[in-house]
Specification:
Structural class: alpha/beta
Largest sheet: 8 strands, mixed, barrel
Radius of gyration: 19 Å
Order of helices and strands: HHEEEHHEHHEHHEHEHEHEH
Strand content: 15-25%
Number of helices: 12
Helix content: 40-55%
Distance between the termini: 24 Å
Protein name: EAL domain-containing protein
Shape: globular
Bound molecules: ligand C2E, magnesium ion
Number of strands: 9
Strand order of the largest sheet: 1-2-4-5-6-7-8-9
């Protein structure tokens, strides 16, 4: 269906990149309705202990199926949702859906949820997290919020207060995409992170490129010195995985370890059955 409207879709994509303000407003409008219309769903990507291959948990990743334009990447629509403020409502949906889903799993695996800067700086955010935990019944220690450094720089005291409130609930926080954007070592000292996620751009060919290998070793040393486990994102090959294992990187995530998929694809770990009929209209995968 998306293919039949290739031209429109292309235009829509372009607009989202800032080519045309009017079309960007159309996307903002569509995003506002998307939660209520049930156009969002979550896919889950495994995070594994590298030395043993043991499953630690999943990162929840948002997917938007637009009725006319088909699947649109979060890299395209998240920035639009952030600018328009729609990310607040969308982010709440993601948090609720992920926590309700994880609360059903037969094994107490972690669930990691991405939180954008706009959400973190919203004064109601930690209260919302608390509410969602109570409502879903998920143990706070099983929730990890992934926050990029960009989210910290806007208003550092406000960001620090928000992180402390979240941590006081017993929820963990991971620094996402470390090494890109506004990376600063002082952020690691100033903010109470529980984990460092090295961006996938540093993992690509890490086993064959001395420069990125040096950077990854340095980040692993940093994690060790600070007592923070390091997760390598974007592990795509056995060679990369072997390098990370040899360097004692604790956790890995990437296509080689498991692609993002619907939770039913991981039924042996979660106990979530693949027959969709049981809750096709359920809160965790249906609309809001
Ligand atoms: P991220 O949080 O860094 O998520 C990792 C991205 O890398 C995901 O892309 C994932 O599918 C992709 N990925 C995983 N393994 C590999 C690999 O081996 N190779 C390559 N090339 N890519 C891999 P995705 O799902 O398209 O998400 C892109 C970004 O959109 C995320 O980056 C995150 O910043 C944002 N995002 C996704 N879901 C949400 C959400 O619910 N809320 C917010 N605020 N942002 C989200
Ligand atoms: Mg992430
Ligand atoms: Mg990341
Ligand atoms: Mg990323």
């Amino acid at each position: 269906r998306a293919k039949a409207e290739g031209k429109d879709t292309y235009r829509y994509f372009e607009a989202s990149m800032g080519a045309e303000a009017r079309d960007r407003r159309v996307m903002e409008h569509d995003l506002r309705q998307a939660v209520a219309r049930g156009e969002f769903r979550l896919v889950y990507q495994p995070q594994k202990e590298i030395s043993t291959g043991r499953m630690i948990g999943f990162e929840a990743l948002l997917r938007w199926h637009h009725p006319d334009h088909g699947d649109i990447s979060p890299a395209v629509f998240i920035p639009v949702a952030e600018d328009s403020g729609a990310i607040i409502q969308i982010g709440e949906w993601v948090l609720s859906a992920a926590c309700e889903e994880a609360a059903r799993w037969k094994n107490p695996l972690m669930v990691a949820v991405n939180v954008s800067a706009v959400q973190l700086h919203n004064p109601n955010f930690s209260r919302k997290v608390h509410e969602v935990l109570l409502r879903s019944g998920l143990a706070p220690g099983r929730l990890e919020l992934e926050i990029t450094e960009t989210a910290l720089v806007k208003d550092m005291p406000r960001a620090l207060a928000a992180l402390r409130q979240i941590k006081a609930l017993g929820v963990r926080v991971a620094m996402d995409d470390f090494g890109t954007g506004y990376s600063s070592l002082s952020n690691l000292r100033a903010f109470p992170f529980d984990k460092i996620k090295i961006d996938g751009s540093f993992i690509k060919s890490v086993d064959r490129n001395g420069q990125v290998a040096a950077i990854v070793r340095a980040v692993l040393g940093l994690g060790r010195g600070l007592g923070l486990p390091v997760l390598a994102e974007g592990v795509e090959t056995l060679g990369e995985l072997r390098f990370l294992d040899a360097e004692d990187c604790e956790i890995g995530q990437g296509f080689y370890l498991g692609r993002p998929g619907p939770i039913e694809a991981f039924g042996e770990l979660t106990g979530v059955a693949s027959e969709k009929e049981d809750d096709g209209a359920g809160r965790s995968r249906g609309g809001g």
